[in-house]
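Please complete every field before forwarding. Incomplete forms are returned to the sender.

SECTION A: IDENTIFIERS
Entry label: holo-156
Bound molecule: zinc ion
Molecule representation: SMILES string

SECTION B: INPUTS
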Amino acid sequence: MTLQLNRRVMQWTVVLYLALMIPITLLHESGHVYVCAENGYQYRVWIDVTGGHMQCFGRLESIPAYNAIGGVFGLAGSGAIIAVWLAAKRHVAILAVGLAFMVDQSAKIILEGFFTRVYLSGSLDIFVTSLQLASWFGFMLYFARVKAPEAVSTSR
Ligand SMILES: [Zn+2]
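SECTION C: PREDICTED COMPLEX
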């Protein structure tokens, strides 16, 4: 059995992921910003090569909901991407990208919300980056698979 891959699906999965990475990151940070501002604190948000960052000038790190809400906002954004695919019923690259962001944001809800101290120390960065790459390329390869013609004709 040879594995054939749809080149267009792969290209679009790469392009869409890169194009939506910053918007999803900003959406994630805006979740933290929302809670920070609601509590009457100042904040700053910035993006660099390591990703999005947000600093709240108030002590909210002890509140799990504050730490988890970035991922909740990000998850909502991932859901919106998947909803676009559901509405279009085509272009699986959109679904692949939505699912990849969903995995990343779900992991961040758990890690930021419940393992805050470890997460903020940066020692999970390698794990988070590996998970991002694995889900991005994993879903890309999964949805780019091309069924062999003989398999299509025999399976009814
Ligand atoms: Zn966050």
